[in-house]
Design brief:
The protein is of the alpha+beta class. The protein folds into two domains: about 80 residues; about 150 residues, Serine Threonine Protein Phosphatase 5, Tetratricopeptide repeat. Helices cover about 45% and strands about 15% of the residues. α1 runs parallel beside α3 and α4 packs parallel to α6. The longest helix is centred in the middle third of the chain and has 15 residues. The model has no long low-confidence stretch (mean pLDDT about 85). Keywords: ANK repeat, Repeat. This is Ankyrin repeat domain-containing protein 39.
Length: about 250
């Protein structure tokens, strides 16, 4: 099957802090508006994006567009083209890619990667420390999963909810850390007041999740501070593995 081509145009001066973009569909406009705040002012057949033309063009190139022509000297118009398979709808491809771009610029991504400087930048800008991403996770979930104690400490110091739950599964940061076997992170969160007896939507405790991680030292730690979890079943009536527990 023949490829399908989509075109957009970017118009603006190289020295300008905004530009006009033509040919975007509503989902692209909405997504770019999140990447470039205060955008989306309507112009004839287009939209004003609050970002330098080259920055906007680079963002569009990350979505698969490429510059195929440009005209003008002081005010330049760039034409960009994107080729895609007919079997993949433009909206689906755009949404997935823009979601990825948005996540990579988020506080959650900085927490996931352990990038202290970027986390601090977000906090200085006033980013909500308990904000959820499109996957339903808050920044502290990512820091806990990866064992980034310095990031977790920074988030908590700036108002992060230590027991915040994921939108799906109702998992706390401590449960995330336990499933990943991050013993130092688990102990840090407990010391900071995390609810060691919290369970997820399946009724699984930190002991269930610690066993899943294979970190028996961590399981032993949880049982030492909450002995009842040793035999507490989940919603399916399944208690933590008796084979493993018998050795603790």
């Amino acid at each position: 099957m023949a490829s399908v081509f989509y075109y957009v145009a970017v118009k603006g001066a190289l020295s300008s802090n905004d530009c006009d973009v033509f040919g975007l569909d509503p989902e692209e406009i909405s997504a770019l508006g999140k990447l470039f705040p205060n955008s989306k002012t309507q112009v004839n057949n287009g939209v004003v994006i609050k970002g330098p033309p080259i920055t906007v063009i680079n963002t569009l190139c990350q979505l698969g567009y490429k510059v195929v022509s440009s005209t003008g000297e002081i005010e330049i118009t760039w034409t960009l083209q994107r080729e895609t398979s007919p079997s993949l709808k433009k909206k689906e491809k755009t949404k997935n890619t823009l979601d990825e771009l948005e996540f990579e610029r988020s506080l959650g991504y900085a927490a996931l990667c352990g990038e202290v400087d970027k986390v601090e930048q977000h906090l200085r800008k006033g980013t909500n420390v308990n904000c959820y991403d499109s996957g339903g996770y808050a920044p502290l979930h990512y820091a806990a999963r990866k064992g980034h104690i310095d990031i977790a400490h920074l988030l908590l110091r700036n108002g992060a909810d230590i027991n915040i739950r994921t939108r799906a599964g109702k998992v706390t940061p401590l449960l995330r850390a336990a499933y990943s076997g991050k013993e130092k992170m688990c102990k840090f969160l407990v010391e900071k007041g995390a609810d060691v007896r919290a369970v997820d939507d399946d009724g699984q405790s930190v002991v269930h999740r610690g066993i899943s991680s294979g970190n028996l030292s961590l399981v032993k730690y949880f049982i030492s501070i909450a002995p009842e979890l040793k035999t507490q079943p989940d919603k399916r009536g399944q208690a933590p593995s008796e084979v493993v527990i018998s050795d603790l």
